[in-house]
Amino acid sequence: MTYTFKIEHTRIPKQKPATDQLGFGKIFTDHMFILDYTEGQGWHDGRIVPYQPILLDPSAMVFHYGQTVFEGMKAYITVNGEVSLFRPERNFARLNASNARLCIPTIDEELALEALKQLVKLDRDWIPTAENTSLYIRPFIIATEPYLGVSPSKKYQFIIIMSPVGSYYAEGINPVKILVEKQYVRAVAGGTGEAKTGGNYASSLKAQEVAAKEGYAQTLWLDGRENEYVEEVGSMNIFFKINGTVVTPALNGSILPGITRDSMLQVLRKHNIPVQERRISITEIIEAHKQGTLEESFGTGTAAVISPIGQLKFEGTEYVINNGEIGEVAQLLYDTLTGIQYGKLEDVYSWTVIVK
Amino acid sequence: MTYTFKIEHTRIPKQKPATDQLGFGKIFTDHMFILDYTEGQGWHDGRIVPYQPILLDPSAMVFHYGQTVFEGMKAYITVNGEVSLFRPERNFARLNASNARLCIPTIDEELALEALKQLVKLDRDWIPTAENTSLYIRPFIIATEPYLGVSPSKKYQFIIIMSPVGSYYAEGINPVKILVEKQYVRAVAGGTGEAKTGGNYASSLKAQEVAAKEGYAQTLWLDGRENEYVEEVGSMNIFFKINGTVVTPALNGSILPGITRDSMLQVLRKHNIPVQERRISITEIIEAHKQGTLEESFGTGTAAVISPIGQLKFEGTEYVINNGEIGEVAQLLYDTLTGIQYGKLEDVYSWTVIVK
C-alpha cells in the first residue's frame, strides 16, 4: 500500500550543528510529521511540515490528565552510506500496545513507518556521520481535546520529531554506579509500567534526584508489591550474568518490553550463551555478589545500547561488579548491535530497514 | 504583602452560556493567569491575559514525560451576592506538595491566592448564579523546557483557567453503581498516588472504560500491593458508615489527601458522629454488608461534594447499599458543605474566603 502525505518544505533551513555540539535531544531537524485524530473521523491529514511549535488550548487534556504515549528509536548512516533504521516496526507495534493501555486509538503501523521513512529521507542531511552518532527519532501522541472531564480524549495528535545525537560513549564505555531504590516505586502490576507513557517517567524523577545527590547515575527499580524483585534500571532494562548464565527480569506487566532487550536476548541465544527470563530478587543478586558469581550487570536501551553497571549500592553497602569494568558479554552485545546498526556486521537477524 | 500583576484585558469578551448549557469543563472565562519559571530566575512575570492557546515546542517535556500537577476548586456566588472561595489556601498547599513529589519548584502560595482572587474578580460575571452552579477553577503547572532528556524541566508555566459549571445534581442526588477493580491499579505506596499529577488520571482511564462497559459509573480502587485495601473511588475519596461509625481509608501515601475529605471529617467530628481514619479491606466491607451493618457509602470531591454509592459490584456479586438511596450522614454532609459554600449556613469552620 502506498501512503501519500502532503509535504510543506521549510523556507528557512536551520544550520546543522557541529559533531561536538550534538548532545542529546536539544537540537531538532527541519521537519516534523503530524497526524490528527478526531472522534468519528479517525486518524487523518497526515502531513510533513516545517518543525514548529504546537498551539493548544490550555484545557487540552494532555496538560491535565497525562494521556500521552511515545517511542524512541534511531536512524544511522551505515558504513556503506545508506540510511538504516533498527527494527522500527517494533516501535510502532509497541506504540499501539501503549495506546491500548492509555485508551488512545491505535494508529496504522504501516502508515506510521511510511511517514517516518519519508521524514527521514527529507531530513537525511541531518543524520550525523561521525562515529557512533545517529538521528534520534521521537514519535509521540498527545490528547488534545479542550475538556477538563476525566475521560479519554476525543482528539489526538501523533507527531514525529527528530534530533541528531552525539556518541553516547565519546570517551569510551564507562560503567556507572547504581542506587537500589527501596522507597520510591516506578510501577506496579496493574499499573502502566509496560506502556511507554509520561506518568512512568514523571514518577521516576524523585528517585533519580535522590540517587544523583548520593553520586549515583541511576536508580535500580524494585517491584511495587514486595520491593524485592528487580524490574528496570533508570529507563533501561537490566541484565545480570550470574555464574555463566545471563538473567533478565521476565516481562510481567510492569516492565517495559525493550526492543534492545529483545535484540540482546536473540544475540545471546545465537551465541549459545545460557539465558533466562525470570523473576530475580535483589537478595539473590546480593547473595551472588557475596559468593563471587555476579560476573556482570548492564542496562540496555536505545540511547546507550548497553550501559554497564560497575557498582550497586543496596541498603548502605556498595557492591563493585567486575572491578567496575565492562564485561565480556556486555562488550559482545554492544559490538554486535552497533555493528549491525552501522552496517559493519552482516544483519543475520533481519533487523535493519534501509530507507531508500 | 501586595502582589501586582500586569493585566491585559480581552478585547473580545465571549458570550456567557445559558444556565442549562453549562455542563462541566468545556466553557472557559475571558481571562487566565500565567506565571513563568526559568531556572536561575525562579517564578516570574505573573500576568492576567485574555484566555488563549498555549504555544509550545513539540519537544516540551510535558508532552513526553508527564511532569505536570494540578488543582481543582470552586468559586460560588453566596446568597448574599458575595464571591466565595472554599479553602483555597489548602489547594495551593497541596499543589506544592504535588510539586515536591514531581520535582517541580514550589510556588509562592500567597502569590497564587492573590492571583486567583484578582482573576476571579476580573471574571466575576462568569460565575453562574443559578442554584448549585459555580465557577470551577483549575490551577496547573506544566514542564515546558524543549528537551528530550529524562530529568526535571528547567522551565515551567503555572496557569489558572476557570470554567462556569452547572449543578452536579440538576435532577436531585442520584446514588451511583460502583465496580470494585481487581486487575488495574491506580497507585501504589512509593508511587505518585498522593500527588495530583496527570499520570494518576491517565492510568485510571482503562479501568473506567471497563466499568462503563459493564454499566458502572466509577471504579473503586484497591491498593497496589495486596489488591485488598480500599483506596479511592474514581477520582474521589471514599467513606463507609458501618454500624454507626464512619470509616475512611487513612492517608497512606497512595491516596489523594482530599480537601472535601478533610472538611467532611471536621463536620463529622463536630456533630459527634464516630469517625475512623484507618486501613479498611474490601473483605471487611463485604462482610459488613452481609451482616447488615454497611449502612452508607459515598465518595467525596470538589465536583460533586458527595456522590452516594447505591451499589457495589465485587467479584461478580452486586451489593445494594441503603436501598440505593442517599443516607442520612451523606445528606447531612452535603447540606453542611454546600450550605457553607453558598453562604446559607454560618461558616463556623472559617473555611470560606470572600473575594472583595
Write the layout of secondary structure elements.
The structure is a homodimer of 356-residue chains.
Chain A: E1 6-7, E2 31-38, E3 42-50, E4 54-56, H1 62-65, E5 68-70, E6 73-77, E7 83-86, H2 88-101, H3 109-122, E8 134-143, E9 155-165, E10 176-181, H4 198-202, H5 205-213, E11 218-222, E12 230-233, E13 237-242, E14 245-249, H6 259-270, E15 275-278, H7 282-290, E16 294-301, E17 305-314, E18 317-320, H8 328-341, E19 352-355
Parallel strand pairs in A: 1-3, 10-11, 10-17, 14-15
Antiparallel strand pairs in A: 2-3, 2-9, 5-8, 6-7, 6-8, 7-19, 8-9, 11-12, 13-14, 13-16, 16-17, 17-18
Helix pairs in contact in A: 2-3, 6-8
General description of the model:
The structure is a homodimer of 356-residue chains. The first copy, chain A, is α+β, with helices and mostly antiparallel strands and 356 residues long. Chain A folds into two domains: 6-165, 2-Layer Sandwich (D-amino Acid Aminotransferase, Chain A, domain 1); 176-341, D-amino Acid Aminotransferase, Chain A, domain 2 (Alpha-Beta Barrel). In chain A, 23% of the residues lie in helices and 31% in strands. The radius of gyration of chain A is 21 Å and the shape is globular. Chains A and B meet through strand 4, helix 1, strand 8, strand 9 and helix 4 of A and strand 4, helix 1, strand 8, strand 9 and helix 4 of B. Strand 4 (54-56) of chain A pairs antiparallel with strand 4 of chain B, so a sheet runs across the interface.
